[in-house]
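Curious: explain these tokens?
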Amino acid sequence: MATAKFTDEQIRQRLERRDRELDAARQISQALFQHLSVEELVEQALRIALEVVNGQAGCVLLADPNSKQLVFYHAIGEKAPPRGTAFPWDKGIAGSVFQTAEPVVTKDVKQDQRHLGDIDEATGYTTHDIIALPLKRWEGDPIGVLEVMNKKDGELDQEDVAILTIISSFTAISIEEARLIEEARLAEVVRVLGDIGHDVKNLLMPVLCGASLLKEEVDEVFAHLPNIEMAKAQASHKLCHEVIEMLETNARRIQDRVKEIADCVKGLSTPPTFGPCRVVDVITVVNETLRFVAEEKGITLTSTGLEKLPNIEADERRLFNAFYNLVNNAIAEVPRGGSIVVRGTPDPSGKGIILAVEDTGRGMPAEVRDSLFTAKATSRKVGGTGLGTKIVKDVIDAHGGRITVESEIGTGTTFYIHLPYQPPKASPR
């Protein structure tokens, strides 16, 4: 049997390729043992991939089973697509790789009909050659796609695929492991929240009973006051009633909120209860609930244009929670003498309404603003978790609406909420 003979140059090239493969495995293995977050690990894996094949740009796309899309999780290179950009998971070269679980090498994307030129157009980047590999373990279904574009010293080829397969496999394992760890943590958090919810309910019962007794006592005391300074007494009586009512209302809402937070952490959501809703009533209650907190900080809470809005089909309790979160968070950002206003206008499309929560606060840096309503959302408040923004997003999504934000340092923040007159599958009652 004949033995294959290799030239010295071929042997040298094979040894070089083997060295690169070993170096890639070494680097990605080191990253695995550095206890990095998923975001940090994905970024490092992508940088290693670009380094070992001398690529100009690259990205990691993860599959979203709910929307059936591939979502840009991280991208490196000039004019990289923004995080969160998505397209159907059966479109483009990446979609083909995700569906077949087989890598693709394209030396000229202009000759490949699968290439999504829209993304190049949107970013202004020009893709020439590309390697796309499924993000998966050696066995199992893909969870996403790793792409490397535009080799700096030639064209991407099958030899590069071998090196990148090592990196993509280790990256997929790391992402799946991180997800399992996160699920275990959330399971423990949910258990603890269940215990907390039970304790909160027990602790709030004396508050509710005490508020009721206090109301009776205040009524009796004011009934026996002499007629002198009656106007002042009546004002004090009214204020006491307002404070007691606020205590009773918010004690009950605390119970609801603990349950809602637990559901949010579990990724669950109680089906919304839709009915005719006057948004002006919801915002009025929000502002009344937070009035004492705002007054103590010297902040004005107002609304405008809400009285003229038509009724919509909505879950009033959930809308209250969403706007309570937005206004309460704004209070923490607004300096003394500032203001928070909720504005309402009909949507020009004629299909719903637009609400704006506008504050004169310190504004947000771009990285915080852009991470809102994503998995990377965090809070700038001491002890904050960023969970409030997820609750807001879940409420708006449940109503078939959308929320956006505009903010810059020193110019304040405005949240825009678009709500349809009729949410998905809502039936008037």
